[in-house]
Design brief:
Layout (H helix, E strand, L loop, with lengths): L1 H9 L17 H11 L42 E3 L2 E3 L2 E4 L5 E3 L4 E9 L3 E8 L4 E8 L1 E2 L8 E2 L4 E4 L12 E8 L10 E2 L1 H12 L20
Antiparallel strand pairs: 1-2, 3-11, 4-10, 5-6, 5-9, 6-7, 7-11, 8-10, 11-12
The structure holds zinc ion.
Zinc ion binds next to loops.
Length: 224
């Protein structure tokens, strides 16, 4: 009885045997493709952003000049001048080698790095995360300067130089302002720093008597 009972129990319809799926090793080519697809898009800052757009007066950050004791007469508007096949989306401030460069606003050092055009560069993003300030051709960084570091307006972040494609020419600061529109913080429309720095240079002289006429701090609206 026991034997039968056991037998009856055992002879229940067996569930269909599933064959273990055959695991095929992906061909090397397929695997490579998959890897390529998964890899996040490289987020490498580029020197040249798209010129565009309208920047309203309320958007304007309160800046101090990126160099000490900047005179309005030192500024010449080279924004959007063409140099070969490159449009200059910044301004250049000629300064002696090693002159200190300061943070134009409170913010965070977003990136410190070297690229072929800019040489030694710093990207500063203001505390509100609205604008990116790009300093290029540095001869060096202030001691310990690091990505993610918070800086206060006026802190020295580096020194004037002639690195990158400024090599062989006079040392200067290449200074670019980019409006941040999305997570690709280094790409947004560029803003002409010239009127902003003229205003900032004059405000830095607030206690003295500015000897030069006060320029209209207007921004350029650029065609697409
Ligand atoms: Zn430049």
């Amino acid at each position: 009885l026991n034997g039968l009972a056991i037998g009856a129990t055992v002879r229940k319809p067996a569930p269909p045997v599933r064959q273990a799926p055959v695991v095929k090793k992906a061909a090397p080519r397929t695997q490579a493709t998959a890897t390529r697809k998964r890899r996040p898009v490289a987020r490498r800052p580029v020197l040249i952003a798209k010129p565009v757009a309208l920047v309203t007066a309320q958007d304007l950050p309160e800046l101090i000049p990126p160099v000490e004791r900047l005179k309005v007469s030192e500024l010449s508007d080279s924004f959007l001048t063409r140099r070969g096949n490159i449009v200059h989306q910044a301004i250049d401030i000629m300064r002696p080698l090693g002159d200190p460069l300061v943070a134009v606003t409170d913010g965070v050092i977003r990136k410190v790095g070297v690229n072929p055009l800019g040489g030694l560069t710093v990207y500063l993003v203001d505390a509100a995360g609205r604008y990116c300030y790009y300093y290029a051709h540095l001869s060096g960084y202030s001691e310990g300067l690091a990505e993610g570091q918070a800086v206060r307006q006026g802190d020295v972040i580096g020194y004037v130089g002639d690195t990158g494609n400024a090599r062989g020419g006079p040392p200067h600061l290449h200074f670019q302002i980019t409006k941040i529109r999305n997570e690709n913080w280094w790409t947004g429309p560029v803003v002409n720093p010239d009127p902003l720095l003229k205003k900032a240079a004059l405000e830095a002289l607030r206690d003295g008597v500015p000897a030069e006429p006060i320029p209209e701090p207007a921004l350029t609206e650029l065609p697409r």
